[in-house]
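Input chain follows. Return C-alpha cells only.
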Amino acid sequence: MPTDLIALDALAVRSTVHLVSGVTDADLSRPTPCAEWHLGALLTHMTAQHRGFAAAASGHGGDLAAWSWAPFSVRDYAASADLVLAAFAAPGVLDRIFELPEFGASFPGRLAIGFHLVDYVVHGWDVATSLGRPYSPDPAVVAAALPLARSVPDGPARLEPGAPFAPALPVPADTDPLSEILLLLGRKLSEVADSKDA
C-alpha cells in the first residue's frame, strides 16, 4: 500500500472537496455525527488539519499557528486541500518525520499520511451525513483505510477531552468495510443528523 498511499489519500480528500463545494452559509449550523460540532466547526477543523499536515510534511508541524482555526469558506477549504496534496506529493515525503501536536508525538510520513487518509474517509461521511447526501468513497480508498482503522488503539484515552475518536462500537459479522471503519472509530451509524431543523 505505501506506494499508493499518497494517491489514495488524494482521492479521499478530493471526494470531500466535492462534498464541501455545495455547502452554503445556511448549512453551517447543521448538526453532525461529531459530538458537539456543527457543520461549520467540523469544516473549520478539516481545513485547519489540511494546513497543519501540509506544514508537518514540510518540517514545520511544530508551529502551532499552522494548525489554527480560521472562519470557514468553501474556497479556503479547497485551497487547503490543494496545499496538503501538494505537500504530500513532494519527493521522499513518506520517509520524512511529521510532527503532529494533536497526537503529542512525531511519526514517519507513511504513518502520518495514513492517519490523514482515515480521518478524511470518516470526515467525508460526517459531512455527507450532515448534509443528507450519499457517500460512496472509492473502494480502494476504503480498502486502504480499513487496516489503519483497525490499528487505532481503543481504550480510556478515547474518552478524554479532545480525543480524535469516540470509543469503538461493536462490529457485526456482516458489516461492510466502510461501516466497519466508522464503527471502529466510534461513529453511531443509526444516528443520522437531522439537518433540516438545524
